[in-house]
Amino acid sequence: MRCDLCKTANSCQDGKPCVTKDSLPLYRDEMDQKVLEIAAAVESEFYADYNRIQEIVVFAKRMGYKKLGLAFCVALNEEAAKACEVFSQYFEIASVCCKVCGIAKTDMRVPSSDRVGDYGCNPIEQARILEESGAELNLLLGLCVGHDALFIKHSKNYVVPVAVKDRVTGHNPLAAIYASAVFKKMKNTKISD
Known about the structure:
By secondary structure, this protein is an alpha/beta fold. The protein contains eight helices and four strands, in the order ααβαβααβαβαα. α6 links the parallel β3 and β4. The protein is globular. The relative contact order is 0.11.
């Protein structure tokens, strides 16, 4: 599928999809159904009125969660502290930074450089620590691309991103799409691997 190329992008939204599947059985799990219902209620009631952090608070409260876990990049320590300041008004908080356990990159068999330092990110341990803490919902704040994938894979709880890291755009990746000059440059520049 390539829904991004659809000329009638609103057709699914209007109940006239070009592809149909038996999707309803996907939501038979009681907890998945509850998440879906509460997410839809939060969207419906607060659309464009609440920011993402406020929506997370409402969602987590309605889910009945008492303890949230925050996995964050150490480079966003100040932002994590501010987010936790808000979340801790409503929930018990466990937080863990990406460099937890201070493992040398050489021991992890990953590359290092002057730009990123000698100690590795530890996303699987972040997930384990939050699980051991009793967190009921994990929040993700600015883990590196790939590290976020490992954290999500190893998290035993649902994971809700607070924000994603983008060092170039002030952690607003869509700025590269919205700013026409940046978008044009990105499209016309070969991305090296």
